[in-house]
Structure formats: structure tokens, C-alpha cells
Amino acid sequence: MTATTLVFDIETVPDLDGARRVLGIASSDDDAVWNAMQSLRRAEKGTEFQPAHLQRIVAISCVLRAADSLKCWSIGDPTSDEAELIQKFFSGVERYKPILVSWNGGGFDLPVLHYRGLIHGVRAQAYWDTGHFDRESKWNNYLKRYEFRHTDLMDVLALYTGRQNAPLNEIAVLLGLPGKLGMDGSKVFDAYRAGRLDDIRAYCETDVMNTWLVYLRFQFMRGHLSEDEYEQEILLAREFLEASTAPHWADFAAAWSE
User: Fold this and answer.
1) Mean pLDDT score of the chain, rounded to an integer?
2) 7 SS3 class
């Protein structure tokens, strides 16, 4: 790989305190607030899924491919607050100026990061630059949907129509990858309320690894990796898994077919 690449994924829970202010809910009982949020959202949109600005980020996981190395980790630690997670993410973009890769990042992850970063007073100059600070960013920036500085794989593969969007899990499984392991997005809030933040971070990490491996196949398909280069990238990913001692990586390696 010639360009530094950062794959990212976030996990969120409903922002109960924010909902108290925005929706004027006086109750101090979290269950009552959550029930009210669901009822109001269902009446308004026909879904209980909360809007981006009322999603609180509890985990951000990344795969970074730079120089000769590949690493995957969750930003901060389980004690890091939302503001710290978001600032560290954008500071990483500032430092590496990578190609960003996501699955539905344009439809969910980035809007959440935008709103929540705004709420917390986060600085993200390189990410938002469209040529004011760096002339090259006028033509090559993270905000252009039809460019590849941010590659939203779900959006690109569906040809930007939205009508043919596919779940990451199903595409990963079709490629012989592990897909979802032990959790999915619908279970994150319950896991968070049960104090299982480490499990959420591990789940988020396996999601970005799936995304990275799908991205490699995409780069091979579009001619940006030769067959030998693609195999070397796959080998590097397997070496990362072999060197990792965390249980979720052992599970991922075991589920990854040849």
C-alpha cells in the first residue's frame, strides 16, 4: 500500500442527558427517558433509531496501514470520555492525513462525529479543510462524496444510490471473512448498560478489521493492488492476528477461512 490508510468505525448509545435537554424531559430515571425517546422517535419517523446528534459515542476503533505496519486498536481507554475519543480521532487525521475508509461512514459515523465534535468543541482543521489551509485540499478532501479521500465502501459499491446498500456482515461473510462476532449494533446499548465496554470495543475492532479486508478486495478489483500485493496485505493482516493475544482476535482468526 502506498498511501496511509485509516479505517474507522464507531459505536454509540442514546444520549439520555442530551435528550433531557432537547426534548424537555424532566425525569431523572434513565429508563423513563429512554422510553420517551423511543416513543417520540417512533411517532415522528416510524423507527426507534435515534438521530445522529442524540447518539453518544462510546467507542472508536481504527485500522491504520502506514509504511510497513498494520495495527488495529480502539482509541483511548474505557475511562476516556466522548470528547477525548473524538478529539483523538481527528488529531490522528491531522497527523497522518490518511485516506479514510468506512462502511456507511458517510451515512452514519461521520455525521455523528460532526455533531458530537461540535458539541464538545473539538478541533478538526485538516478534516474540514477544502483548500483554505492547504491548496491541494480544494480538489482532494474528506467532504467530497464522489472522491476517494474518504471511501465509504457501502456507498461506493451501491453506486451512491442508497437502493442497493448491503450490510457489512453479509459482504464479509460472502468474502469468507468472519463478519459479526458475538455482538451487533442492536446489542451495544444493553452491553453498555451492563458495563461491558471492553466487549463493545472488541466488537468495534473486529468490525474495522472486516472493513479493512473488504477494502483490500475493493482495491484489488479496481487495479490499485496487484495479485502479489493483495496477497502480501492479507499476509500482513494474518500476521497481526497471530501476534495478538486478545481473545477476540483469536476468535477472528479461527473464523477466517482460507
Assistant:
1) 95
2) strand
